[in-house]
Amino acid sequence: MEKRKLKIRDLTLRDGQQSLFATRLSQGEIDKLLPYYENAGFYIMEVWGGAVPDSVMRYLDESPWNRLRSVSKVMKGKSLLSALSRGRNLFGYVPYPDSVLEGFYKEAIDNGLNVMRIFDALNDIDNVKESIRMINKLGGIADGAVCYTVDPKTEVEAPKGFFARLFGKKPVEPEKIFTDEYFVEKAKAMEALGAKIITLKDMAGLVTPSRAASIISKLKANVKVDVDFHTHCTPGYGLASSIMAILNGVDILDTNIWWFGGGSAAPAIELIYLFAEPLGVEIDVDMKAVGEIRERLLGARKSLKDFDLGQLPKAFDPLKDTIPAEVREQVDRAVAAAKAGDEATLLEACHAIEAYFGFPKPNELVKNAEVPGGMYSNMVAQLKSLGASDLLEDAMALIPMVRRDAGLVPLVTPTSQIVGSQAVMVAIDRRKGNPDYTTKSNQFISLVKGEYGKTPVAIDPAFREKITGSAQEKPYDVSSYKKPENPVLAELGGVKLAANNEEYLLLELLPSVANGFLKKRRTEEFEAAKASNPAVEDTKKEEVAEKVEITGPTFLAPMGGRIISVSVKPGDKIKKGDIMFVYEAMKMENDVAADKDCVVKRVFMSPDDVVNTDQVLIEFE
């Protein structure tokens, strides 16, 4: 009897590096790996979307479009190339109108993308239906992803102190919201809209083996298209839950290659390979080619040591190395336990295998806070860059409270970013002795207002009024969208900031990041023109910083970040509540309002300035 073939979606070049290394893998490192990917036979390679368009501009000063084109050119259609789209939020952090979605989808497909995995952070089907329609119309493959999340914890289940922060009252048994049927109904709705693949997207790795068995089996019974399972290993369930997904008929499994697997990322394909024969499936990938990639991937990981949140496993080649008897024994034990539905023994065996090879232990902090690995790695990286790493534990402990207040949203970008950054802000508020939610990001206000869509649980009107100023829910208004300007840069020879459609799309998607990225490109072009033609005039003006003594009351930066816009100037009379400036911290835009009536004496910031926490920004009379 021919074995069932298990198709693999390789996440190494996108989600793997995003989860373990804060999306810092450079184009140069990817170019070294691509020739070995060409004949590996992965059904799908996830290479784009998610945090990539933002991060490659923000941190690597690279073009997202060049990244997609370079992969497509080498792969020559031998594996389907996929990206992750946040539905109405696309690859950004706010809702966008259909014109922006369609522009990006068309450009992506024209540049070699095949599969767009589409999800909504609230599991609001209204937010994904247009994306599914557009991808199908443009000739791509729409992959509908249902975001897995869990119900609130009871006092018995919660770590000490969590319950008080979650509810602030005596124990109650919460309503069961996120049942198997909840996820199945979302999947059926996406299939009805035209999704050609259905993914159970477990971004936090919270799907237990028993839950993987029940949900995957029900999805297979209720949808006709291929079912994909995507999970992470952070809390310790990833490998065991993948085994249960295979046993229950999953068609596609998401994995990473050894050096980019485990920990806060998805399981390593090499570990899945150990289970293939006992489970009666064939991994539909050329494992010899995978080995060639693996040999070179170690160097890529070492190049990311400054961002590495994991630990290096032992070197292992399942095709060449002898599998130790103790590992083989644990594999057989795990398979027997999986078939018997013995979750405890299955997890114990899988943890023993991972420990033997040196993969990280289950992260209890992440498990208890119920956050995705990418969110955790990003919070660590961002807080480190802000010089505020000591806030991590406080912020993590506040995440369940902020999530509950915001309508029990699943934690996946952008809601993970919104909730995570807001938890950091609450932690800072508490440290300063301020009431919770004194400092709020624009995106948190929009989420509570209703602009991101319908939350799984209704938000308390009193909380909505506290955060937004109104108890009334207000959905996103597409008609209010204003296309960003494409300014003429007089100081750079009168050229426009965005030189073509693909650059203007970046400006529409991520205006703050793209503005700086594109200005660098135009500056480089201007300097190159000057070098080749000395007659070109340099119209840039030198600015001399004036050293001044500060004598009046000051306004300090609430949190380190980058200034986006400044709306006050010396001599302005401002009232309490007036917006003084907008800055970006942890990828969230934050309006900063005056806390009293005052007169501006001096302003010590300009757009694009990077500021530190408690840096003096404004002096008042």
What does this structure look like?
- Helix 2 packs antiparallel against helix 12 (287-303), helix 5 (98-110) crosses helix 21 (501-509) and helix 13 runs antiparallel to helix 14.
- The strands form four sheets. Strands 1-2-3-4-5-6-7-8 form an eight-stranded parallel barrel, surrounded by six helices. Strands 12-19-17-14 form a four-stranded antiparallel beta sheet, with no helix packed on it.
- The chain folds into four domains: 4-313, Aldolase class I (TIM Barrel, Alpha-Beta Barrel), CATH 3.20.20; 367-451, Cyclin A, domain 1, CATH 1.10.472.90; 488-532, no CATH class; 554-620, Beta Barrel (OB fold (Dihydrolipoamide Acetyltransferase, E2P)).
- The protein is built from 22 helices and 19 strands.
- Helix 6 (129-137) links the parallel strand 4 and strand 5 (141-147).
- The chain has 621 residues and is α/β, with parallel strands linked by helices.
